[in-house]
From TrEMBL:
Lineage: Bacteria, Pseudomonadati, Pseudomonadota, Alphaproteobacteria, Rhodospirillales
Keyword Hydrolase: yes
Region (Disordered): 211-240
PANTHER family: ISOCHORISMATASE-LIKE DOMAIN-CONTAINING PROTEIN, PEROXYUREIDOACRYLATE/UREIDOACRYLATE AMIDOHYDROLASE-RELATED
The keyword Plastid appears for this protein: no
Annotated protein name in UniProt: Isochorismatase
Keywords associated with the record: Hydrolase
Organism, scientific name: Thalassospira marina
Single GO molecular function: hydrolase activity
Length: 240
């Protein structure tokens, strides 16, 4: 009897340890190869995980619908500007891989982001032309080699990163871009975060690494949220 209990405890401990390992692996930020900004004069707009699975979610893992509308409107302004001025718009979409990861996704988050989900497409409120659509399996979009290939081909050295979630995929992709020497900008107006208090800390960490909060105009006070994307669009015209 005691042997059975001991084995059960060991199995539970093993599962907990493996779950923690997989979670940390999912959130791992890559380093990559440094780019030469002199060879990368152009800008690109990266839209992270703006999928129906997440934008339409309800409950504790959902966003306030009115806020989602506002953020998508602000992102649409950037997409329009990018389309009109000739720099690429890149959609990054999450699809989890691996049986155990998807078991947890089904168990804890109603299968959102899983390969069998019906909500993997970009939210249809997002307007304008998407030039590239990249599917990722981890928080850091740079773990998908095709992203760097696209950016190199387009001679992109400046990234505007928008979407969700600010504390996870937006954050990890931003740090991965900074590790590679990209110039990165973001804003509250174009970022969704489930935990606003954590987002303030996350945002401060991004700015400390060199990312620019365009709408707050490089302000050292990162506690005040931005409320418009107009300044950002004006400040990110691609180099000719």
């Amino acid at each position: 009897m005691w042997l059975v209990i001991l084995l059960a405890v060991l199995v539970i401990i093993g599962l907990i340890g493996y779950t923690i390992f997989r979670h940390r692996r999912h959130l791992l930020t890559t380093t990559g190869t440094k780019i030469d900004p002199r060879d990368r004069p152009n800008s690109a707009l990266l839209i992270i995980d703006l999928q129906e699975d997440f934008t339409l979610a309800k409950g504790k893992n959902g966003y306030e619908p009115a806020l989602v509308d506002k953020v998508i409107d602000a992102i649409n302004d950037l997409v329009t500007y990018a389309n009109e001025n000739g720099y690429p718009v890149i959609s990054i979409r999450q699809t989890f891989k691996g049986w155990y990861v998807n078991f947890l996704v089904n168990l804890l988050n109603k299968g959102r982001g899983g390969p069998a989900s019906q909500g993997l497409d970009i939210d249809d409120r997002l307007l304008g032309d998407i030039d590239h659509d990249i599917v990722k399996a981890h928080a850091d979009a740079f773990r998908e080699p095709v992203l760097e290939q696209v950016l190199e081909r387009q001679k992109v050295g400046k990234l505007i990163i928008v979407g969700l979630d600010g504390n996870y995929c937006v954050n990890k992709t931003t740090h991965a871009a900074l590790n590679r020497g990209y110039e990165v900008s973001f804003s509250d107006a174009t970022t969704l975060a489930i935990k606003p208090s954590s987002w303030r800390k996350t945002r401060s960490g991004m700015m400390a690494r060199g990312a620019t909060d365009r709408i707050n105009n490089n302000s050292n006070d990162t506690s005040q949220p931005a409320n418009s994307a107009n300044d950002e669009t004006k400040m990110n015209e691609p180099a000719q």
